[in-house]
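chain below, 181 aa
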Amino acid sequence: MILEGSARRRGRTAELVEFLRLRLPGEVTVVRAYDTPVSPRRDCRYCLSHPGCAVKDEMQDLYPAIEGCDNLIIASPLYFHSVPAPLKAIIDRLQPYWAATVRGDEDQISTKRGALLLVGGAPPFEGQFLPAELMLRGVLSDLHASCEDIIRMDDADRRPLPQRPEIQTQLTALAQSLITL
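prediction:
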């Protein structure tokens, strides 16, 4: 499963997702956050004492898909050092998995492999990906997913994927690592 946070269907993040998807065998589900209307987390605290989420919306379809996938890739452009709001809404609604740890029944989700694809439009600068990377590593951890790789593509506004053989090589290597156990 690939959670994609890009607003643009043909943007740089979508390029990376498609490049990776074409190198993965079997069924690959791409969930576009902008096409998945999810209510923001309400902090109702239902999940602290019950499995699941009290809010019934598109997340009810995502929970079993996340639980059942072998690999979970989160792909996102950076909007002011973080992920876009629709992807953040999905991430915030993953609270039931953290709450399961608090309740002591976190075995509801199987161990899986994960990775991050992060795209920054700006030229490279120190710490460009750090805030989003720290948050998304935590998300993968809470979902019992190892972080196999983090692929960072800076300067994406000026240099698309076809001009980036080093990023293509990293994506191909990530696909191979997700295929082999």
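The mean pLDDT is 94. DSSP finds six helices and five strands in the chain.
thats it, cya
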